[in-house]
Amino acid sequence: MSEKLGRPIRLENDANCFALSEAIDGAAAGKGIVFGVILGTGVGGGVAVDGRPLVGCNRVAGEWGHNPLPWSRDGERPGAPCYCGKDGCIETFLCGDGLGREYLARSGRHLTAEEIALGAATGDACAHDCLTVYKDRLARSLAAVVNLLDPEAIVLGGGLSNISQLYDGLTEHVGRYAFSDGIDTPIVPAAHGDSSGVRGAAWLWANR
Ligand SMILES: [Zn+2]
After folding, report:
1. pLDDT (tens digit per residue) in 89-130
2. Residue 88 sits in which domain range?
3. How many CB atoms are closer than 10 A to CB 45?
4. Nearest to residue 174, comparing CAs of 151, 197, 195?
5. How far apart are CA 179 and CA 78, in angstroms?
6. Tens-digit pLDDT profile for residues 133-160
7. CA of 121 to the centre of ligand 1 (A)
8. Which burial class, exposed, middle or buried, applies to 137 when counting CB atoms under 10 A from its CB (0-12, 13-18, 19+)?
9. 65: CA distance to ligand 1 center in Å?
10. How far, in Å, from the CA of 42 to the mean position of ligand 1?
């Protein structure tokens, strides 16, 4: 690509770019250690430290979506098969299909994540329960990140990050699982929405 375009190329994972964009001039601007999460058709994670992506020696730093769901309960094991070859990855629970699968199991009906969020806000008790379970799984998953990395901010992106009900009391909820009497980590929606990934790719040219 570099030869064809006649200029240098820098490549980075989309979640790393997302974290970078939000850490430099987004929802976590000015924070030193930022964990970025993409909750969408898949679940990605990326870490930015002092305005740079943390890549890792195997280039998998931040790929938390393919860890197992923490503090799994009866009924959550072994979990759904994941495309990565394992079962019960965080991604299988927190992606859009994961939320839809929970609703299907409880109601026998297929709804999208967006429809479930709307239902939860408009009196669908099953949708409300599904969102409550989803939020608890998200809190458990993020608590494991806090225990390992203790980021100064966690930024959520992707389609499911638009579900406003997720943010109510989420920090306190994560704190109940984290190894601490309580945490005050801001957990916030992305400032730049779907544009954050490409913005972060552009930011790969800064601060190096
Ligand atoms: Zn997986």
Report:
1. 999 999 999 999 999 999 999 999 999 999 999 999 999 999
2. 2-206
3. 27
4. 151
5. 25
6. 999 999 999 999 999 999 999 999 999 9
7. 30
8. buried
9. 7
10. 10
Question: How confident is the model at residue 142, as a pLDDT?
Answer: 98
**Whether the predicted pLDDT of 208 surpasses 60:** no
Which residues have CB under 8 Å from 140's CB, separation 6+? 69, 70, 71, 177
Residue 86's alpha-carbon distances to 28, 79, 115, 155, in angstroms, are 32, 9, 28, 26
- State both tokens at 189: 């929606």
The tokens of 157 are what? 């992106």
Q: What pTM was computed for the model?
A: 0.96
Which pair of tokens denotes residue 74?
Answer: 């009866």
Residue with tokens 């009497």: 181
CA distance 131 to 125: 10
**Ligand 1 center to 5 CA (angstroms):** 35
The CATH number of whichever domain residue 9 belongs to comes to: 3.30.420.40
- According to DSSP, the residues that pair with 155 across neighbouring strands are 36, 188
Q: Residues 6 or more apart from 123 whose CB is under 8 A from it?
A: none
- Give the residue from 207, 148, 144 showing the smallest Cα distance to 177: 144
C-alpha separations of 153 from 108, 145, 146 in Å: 37, 11, 10
Q: How far is the CA of 68 from the centre of ligand 1 (A)?
A: 8
What's the domain count of the chain?
1
> Region 21-30: what's the mean pLDDT?
97
pLDDT of residue 206: 83
